[in-house]
Amino acid sequence: MPKQPTQSSQSCSECGFLNCHRRDKKFPSFCLTETLDSDLAARTTDKYRGKGIDARVSRSAAEVEGTYYGKLTRVEEIIAFANRIKAKSIGIATCIGLIQETRVFIKILKAHGLTSYTVLCKVGSVDKCEVGIPDSLKVKKGSFEKGSFEALCNPILQAELLNAKKTDLNVIVGLCVGHDSLFMKHSKALVTTLITKDRVLGHNPAVALYTSNFYYQRLLNPEQKL
Fold this sequence. Notes:
Elements: H1 19-22, H2 32-35, H3 38-46, H4 53-68, H5 74-84, E1 89-94, H6 99-111, E2 115-120, H7 155-165, E3 169-173, H8 179-186, E4 190-195, H9 206-210
Parallel strand pairs: 1-2, 1-3, 3-4
Helix pairs in contact: 4-5, 7-8
């Protein structure tokens, strides 16, 4: 029998009621909503009121969700959201492996009156070895004597170049795990994601979760080292 989490370690994933959504059940004793500091709750809620950027973004997101729930694709939702926050210039931080998808996305944005500016992940063309990544960790390994040029992914430079363009909204198209984190950290504009990279599952990472009891049982194996 699996060990039950202690009350101090329990969080939303252990809740079987999800009462915070509709309030048609009850809150468990460990519920974060029930045990939330009232001052923190009030300060957070206040950010969604008024004319501040957080409030405007929150309302725009809610409008898109409520108006088009289950009706629009992610591409269309990004356009609808951009329109509501009055974003005209869309920055695109794309993976080199998804440049064709990015080009299609650009055509769609243009058709809806939005301008775009794209920065590829390999911008700057800096060899991985220059920052201490050994040749053995390159995707395409060269001989250890001569090595082979392979540019590092450069999400910080992607963000800085889009910052310089003063884009209104930045969109991630397939940046690697961790590289996307750095891009979001350094981007001055709001960031949303169009494509989440998963090379094995055709950029649909949820498949690993849906099939964890069959094809991907190994994911639940504590002996599986990653």
